[in-house]
Write a structure and sequence with these properties.
8-stranded antiparallel beta barrel; 8-stranded antiparallel sheet; alpha+beta; 33 strands; single chain; globular
Length: 531
């Protein structure tokens, strides 16, 4: 009651934040008094789970905030310096998505004042080592030196420290070690120079088209661009590794440098187009959409950028175009031919015609049909086997095509146009990765589809593996569509499970505190005939 009363005095919207928090944990934006009690309970529960401390604070939520932080260093000899700013305004759920240095549109006078304020804060507490002093700036009327506010200090290097290293040419980890050994800072403030512009993106295994839910599983295919002087790749994962539920879903960072912001942005976009991930869903296409967005290109950024442009950044599930369908068909044909060649080599008769996969006929062209399911729609592709490849009958017309798979990539010719893409075949699932975007095409299995039709019934299944932190219903309860049934926590996120239709709860299969697998039926409902 006290916090709600104070929130009313502060004025809505307000932000509830965990006192011991960070990284967006235990943080909720509240638009009205009616939303406050539920948001407070959720924030405190998440804070208790993450930090063993459920205390929270509330503050006024700024309408157009810029998150700008200052990298500082201090030694044991009384010296402290700043290494300029980083703009971390592109965020989702208070988690940083893109970081860049310097901040777009930063006036030089404001840079000096913010840097001095950060250094003053470090000296005031006798700080030692690397740290980041974080500020929030009200950008509703543009950046100005009299309109920024202290948020917190992170007493460490952060995920985004490479952008500072890129624009200063300094190794911040080396600086940490030297300061820890009692040395003075390697450079005074006057000798720390800034050159060019740098941007970093966080590559996550999450599905932007499914509410950004984390995605786990084996990285069946993983290709990242090559590092160089203008592009840095930091990653602890490689193809074949397992992405588990126990950690943040970040699998890599891509950092690009350029002489100016446009060059850095273009280099980063090109790098993201080369990312190939199959297995768990990944956000490379989403990141590239941000980097390519006109508003981002002109530096019009704030912490509400993603929410404001979400429909453009995450469009509805795209219909697989003829190019993707052709590549998927060629991948299936090439994979089948490779398997046949291997079987022939193992046999006692490697030239036997029974190992041919081209539908050979006497005095006729071999023909067949491949059936795929894309977003629930079945698409039939006609295949005519020709001496120099195949002709594919696609929804948009017939084309001449050829292709072969080479180390997880398909190199194809489509009506004379050469194209290559990442490809992975996992059972009935074919993943084609083009320009950083993974397109999933399922081989159509009518028997499997019939089995799915017989199941279902509105049961609530876990969209990802995680811990069930609360259960809100019991058998016999009547619920309406959209009612909350429970809360699932996984990979730093809470997700409310809701009823997909009106019904009566038949069984609750898990209790609060239980770990559940992706796809597990958490709550089942009485069938219509039993209701």
């Amino acid at each position: 009651e006290f916090l709600l009363e104070q929130a009313k005095k502060t004025g809505f919207p307000v932000l509830i934040k965990a006192v011991a928090g960070g990284g967006g944990r235990g943080m909720r934006r509240v638009e009205s008094p009616d939303e406050f009690p539920g948001a407070l309970e959720s924030a405190r529960r998440e804070a208790k789970s993450a930090f063993s401390d459920d205390r929270v604070l509330i503050e006024r939520y700024l309408a157009k905030p810029r998150h700008i932080e200052i990298q500082i260093f201090a030694d044991s000899h009384g010296n402290a310096v700043h290494l300029f700013e980083r703009d971390c305004s592109i965020q989702r759920r208070h988690q940083k998505v893109i970081e860049e240095a310097p901040a777009p549109g930063m006036p030089e006078g404001m840079r000096e004042i913010m840097g001095a304020a950060a250094v003053q804060a470090a000296k005031a507490i006798g700080y030692l080592g690397a740290g980041t002093v974080e500020f929030i700036a009200d950008a509703s009327k543009g950046l100005s030196a009299d309109n920024f506010y202290f948020i917190e200090m992170n007493t460490r290097l952060q995920v985004e420290h490479p952008v500072t290293e890129m624009i200063t040419g300094l190794d911040l980890v080396e600086w940490q070690l030297r300061v820890a050994m009692g040395e003075t800072l390697p450079l005074p403030q006057s000798q720390i120079q800034m050159q060019g512009h740098a941007m970093e993106v966080r590559l996550y295994t999450e599905n932007p088209r499914n509410g950004f839910l984390p995605s786990t599983g084996t990285l069946r295919h993983m290709r990242l661009p090559e590092s160089g002087s203008a592009l840095r790749i930091d990653s602890g994962f490689r193809e074949g590794d397992e992405v588990s539920i126990h950690y943040d879903p970040m699998i890599a960072k891509l950092i690009a440098h350029g002489r100016d912001r446009d060059q850095a942005r273009n280099r980063l976009s090109h790098a993201l187009a080369q990312v190939e991930i199959a297995g768990p869903a990944a956000n490379a296409g989403f990141l590239r959409a941000i980097v390519e967005h006109p508003a981002f290109a002109r530096g019009d950024v704030d912490t509400g950028f993603i929410e404001r442009h979400l429909a453009e950044l995450v469009p509805a599930e795209p219909h697989a175009d003829d190019r993707i369908l052709a590549l998927a068909a060629l991948a299936v044909l090439a994979g089948r031919a490779d398997a046949a060649r291997q079987a022939a080599a193992r046999s006692g008769d490697p030239v036997s015609p029974w190992f041919r996969t081209d539908g050979w006929r006497v005095n006729a062209i071999g023909r067949e049909e491949l059936r795929f399911s894309v977003n629930g729609k079945v698409i039939a592709i006609g295949v005519a086997h020709m001496p120099d490849g195949v002709r594919l009958q696609l929804p948009g017309g017939e084309i001449a095509a050829s292709g072969k798979i080479d180390h997880g990539r398909i190199v194809a010719g489509l009506d004379g146009l050469k194209i290559s893409a990442g490809v992975n075949i996992d059972g009935m699932r074919v993943t084609v990765i083009l320009d950083g975007e993974a397109h999933i095409v399922e081989r159509h299995d009518p028997v499997h589809d019939a089995e799915l039709e017989e199941g279902g019934g509105g049961d609530v299944i876990a969209p990802m593996p995680g811990k069930l932190v609360s259960v809100l219903v019991k058998p016999g309860d009547k619920v309406r569509k959209g009612d909350p049934l429970g809360v699932l926590e996984a990979m730093k996120m809470e997700n409310t499970l809701t009823a997909s239709a009106d019904g009566v709860v038949a069984q609750v299969n898990y209790a609060a505190g239980d770990q559940v697998d992706e796809g597990a039926v958490v709550v089942s409902f009485e069938r219509p005939e039993a209701a």
